[in-house]
Specification:
Blueprint (H helix, E strand, L loop, with lengths): L14 E5 L6 H14 L7 E5 L5 H7 L6 E5 L16 H6 L4 E4 L2 H5 L5 H14 L2 E6 L3 H5 L3 H12 L11 E5 L13 H19 L8 E4 L7 H6 L5 E4 L6 H8 L3
Parallel strand pairs: 1-2, 1-8, 2-3, 3-4, 4-5, 5-6, 6-7, 7-8
Helix pairs in contact: 1-2, 1-10, 7-8
Bound molecules: 2-phosphoglycolic acid.
């Protein structure tokens, strides 16, 4: 089902999301999609999401056209609609290039590029303005974890990220819990630990959006691969996976996409 601007989109769960980061330019993206679609038949018991680099959005969107089980998202947006922001793209531009959702607050954006909670809030609001769904990422650093601050950090990021939205009753929202210490490190949260944080996030979501919280997918991310995907996905409250390194090669992504 296509996203409806202003209306809640449904994301059959699990949601399996590929964050290619700065990998797979337009030509490679096209080859990836062609190879993926040859092997991956549509299924209605899950949603596949691909976040290519912005330049590869049109190739991916064109490749998956007609496949309502596969969503295409952009990895980052600026909050303004247009203007003097060299190097940036707006939510509207991403939408026009074929994106139906946006990743907001990925830890590399926060920690490598200095994105603050305030910027994340503006980006979530920009996605809402453009009629895009967004996936807000939250997660603690190793230092914060060791200081016992995990819960306050992720809840603070969630609350701040949603603080600028106009209409919480219609906004299309997904969450991703990505402990920073687990991203690209080969270390992943234990399924039980992920479940506990997801339950906490769900309860805060309930405070913010009420009953709709139950339908909002909460994904786990951080060193997910085809060896650990199944057990993480089986954990209570884990509604999907956000996968970086293991999503860049089509063979590995096919195995994760088909996890029972
Ligand atoms: P990783 O990245 O799977 O390579 O750890 C996950 C992410 O950054 O979304």
């Amino acid at each position: 089902m296509a996203d409806r601007p202003g209306g809640p989109a449904t994301f059959p769960r699990p949601v399996l999301a590929a964050n290619w980061k700065m990998n797979n330019g337009p030509a490679q993206a096209k080859s990836f999609v062609d190879a993926f679609l040859q092997e991956y038949a549509a299924r209605n018991d899950r949603t596949i999401v691909v976040f290519p680099p912005a330049l590869s959005l049109p190739a991916v969107a064109a490749g998956v056209r007609g496949r309502t089980d596969i969503r295409v998202g952009t990895q980052n947006i600026h909050w303004a609609q247009k203007g003097a922001f060299t190097g940036e793209i707006s939510a509207e531009m991403a939408r026009d290039a074929g994106a139906s959702l946006v990743l907001v607050g990925h830890s590399e954006r926060r920690h490598v590029f200095g994105e603050t909670d305030d910027m994340c809030a503006k980006k979530c609001a920009a996605a809402e303005r453009a009629g895009l769904a967004f996936m807000l990422c939250v997660g603690e650093t190793l230092e914060q974890r060791e200081a016992g601050a995990t819960e306050s950090v992720v809840l603070g990021q969630l609350e701040a990220g949603l603080s600028g939205l106009r209409d919480l009753s219609t906004v299309n929202l997904l969450l991703a819990y990505e402990p920073v210490w687990a991203i690209g490190t080969g270390l992943n949260a234990k399924p039980g630990d992920a479940s506990a944080i997801h339950a906490l996030l769900r309860s805060k979501l309930h405070d913010i959006v009420g009953e709709r919280a139950a339908a909002i997918p909460i994904l786990y991310g951080g060193s997910v691969n085809d060896g650990n995907a199944r057990v993480l996905l089986a954990a209570p409250e884990v509604d999907g996976l956000l996968v970086g390194g293991a999503s860049v090669e089509v063979a590995s992504w096919l195995r994760i996409s088909g996890v029972p």
